[in-house]
Write a structure and sequence with these properties.
globular; 10 strands; binds 5-O-phosphono-beta-D-ribofuranosylamine; alpha/beta
Length: 203
């Protein structure tokens, strides 16, 4: 399977996926990395690994629709089977999400359905939660609301800040995302109407 990865910033999840894809038995190929920010460090990580890159700068488009159409054109040029959002910080339009239904994954730094949207680590701290974590989910029309495929937990410790917590959550993401992408490439995970099938069974 052909994988296109979209990122906006540092790209540490992208890095984890690149490393996994370099293992000899990895079942997919990262054919391109796209960014909405020309300065994103993720672009350098991709170039370093000899992966093709493209930039669709959202500040150059008047509407979300125009941006998404331009993004879609770039993605489709690479004929992907799977589109992996890895720290991609733009909300995608309904048309975009529908076009790639079942092929679009995201990582969100909370134990969904808790804390959709931004500032998840601070919100978990403010709520006094004992457990926090990250979720990998299919992207559907509902923001951070698509069916969850896998989650990893971290314990919140006394003295944690949003930064220390983010670091531990991201370490989990780097382990979990490559596993989930592998499952998708192997055809083990599928999106049903509003649920996930794992090896043909309801998850
Ligand atoms: C990750 O924690 C991800 O869950 C969130 O943004 C962060 C991206 O980090 N959406 P990176 O760009 O992969 O380093």
């Amino acid at each position: 399977p052909r994988i296109v990865i979209l990122a906006s910033g540092n790209g540490s999840n992208l890095q984890a996926l690149i490393s996994a894809s370099q293992e000899r038995d990895f079942p997919g190929k990262i054919v391109a990395v796209g960014c909405n920010r020309p300065q994103a460090f993720a672009l350098e990580r991709a170039a370093q690994a000899n992966i093709e890159t493209f930039v669709v700068d959202h500040t150059k488009y008047d509407t979300r629709d125009d941006f998404d159409r331009a993004l879609m054109v770039e993605i489709l040029r690479h004929n992907p089977d799977l589109i992996v959002l890895a720290g991609f910080m733009r909300i995608l339009t309904t048309d975009f999400v529908r076009a790639f239904r079942g092929k679009l994954l995201n990582v969100h730094p909370s134990l969904l359905p808790k804390y959709t949207g931004l500032n998840t680590h601070q919100r978990a701290l403010d709520a006094g939660d004992a457990i926090h974590g990250t979720s990998i989910h299919f992207v559907t029309e509902e923001l951070d609301g698509g069916p969850v495929i896998a989650q990893a937990e971290v314990q919140i410790k006394p003295g944690d800040t949003a930064e220390t917590l983010a670091e531990r959550v991201q370490a989990k993401e780097h382990l979990l995302y490559p596993i989930v992408v592998r499952w998708l490439c192997e055809g083990r995970v599928q999106l049903g109407s509003d649920f996930v099938l794992f090896d043909g069974e309801l998850l």
